[in-house]
Amino acid sequence: MKIKSREIKFKAGIFDLDGTILDSMPVWLNLGADYLKSRNIEPPQNLREILKPMSLAQAAEYFRKKFGITETDSEIIDQVNKMLEHAYFNTVKEKPGIIKFLENLRAAGVKMCIATATDKYLVEAALKRLKLTDYFDFIITCKCVGAGKDSPVIYFEALKKLGAKIHEAIVFEDALHAIETAKKAGFIVAGVYDLSAQEDLEEIKNLCDYFIEDFNQLTLDDLGVYGNSY
User: Fold this and answer.
1) DSSP conformation letters of the chain
2) What percent of the chain has pLDDT over 90?
3) Is the model's pTM score more than 0.90?
């Protein structure tokens, strides 16, 4: 675990979903290639890297323009979501230690939200099944704000709805591109280890204010959360 010394008292948490709260990245790793193969299109070898910073809407636009797919972006997204539904409705699990961590934050009066590129109905299904829904004040998606996580718009919208100042909030993310975006925008960031980001691990550790292997390593004292301050 890595922690930078801070004296700020946190009031709000902005949580990514996939790879941060949910152990769902294996579902995503081959999704783009599987979609193209279902259309009898051979995916490029670097497809994962191309899609990594994109929201679903951005990926759909890329598929349509790059490969001449005739469906609309919305139709492509619907097809991709159907490939994801089984996992989110039935099999995806939470990351180790997250339930206890969220429980402790809620007890301390910290407001929390989900900020994700995943479509809202899939998020809601997984959170409900895993009994995580009540920990979060709201869900905000890249689709809702019209921008992927290569833009800080989603973080600023989440911050506004949480009613916190930027130095009072912490962003929890697993992916390098999202961590870079949040840090450049001035947010305090906690990196959460996920195997899908292994090749970026050292850079993630260097960028983040906190870095944890899992949520069992992080306490409220580490974050400067000492009780309800609202």
Assistant:
1) -EE--------EEEE--BTTTB--HHHHHTHHHHHHHHTT-PPPTTHHHHHTT--HHHHHHHHHHHH---S-HHHHHHHHHHHHHHIIIII--BPTTHHHHHHHHHHTT-EEEEEESS-HHHHHHHHHHTT-GGG-SEEEEHHHHT--TTSTHHHHHHHHHHT--GGGEEEEE-SHHHHHHHHHTT-EEEEE--GGGGGGHHHHHHH-SEEESSGGG--HHHHT--S---
2) 78
3) no
Domain boundaries, given as residue ranges, for the chain: 2-25+93-223, 27-91
Query: Torsions phi, psi of 8, nearest 5?
Result: -80, 140
pLDDT of residue 16: 98
Rounded to an integer, what distance in angstroms lies between the CA atom of residue 29 and that of residue 33?
9
Taking Cα atoms as reference points, which of 144, 115, 160 lies closest to residue 21? Answer: 115
The CATH architecture assigned to 2-25+93-223 reads 3-Layer(aba) Sandwich (3.40)
Tens of pLDDT, residue by residue over 3-59, are 564 555 789 999 999 999 999 998 888 889 999 999 999 999 999 889 988 888 899
CA 183 to CA 36: how far, in whole Å? 33
C-beta separation of 177 from 52 below 8 A: yes
CB 25 within 8 A of CB 19: yes
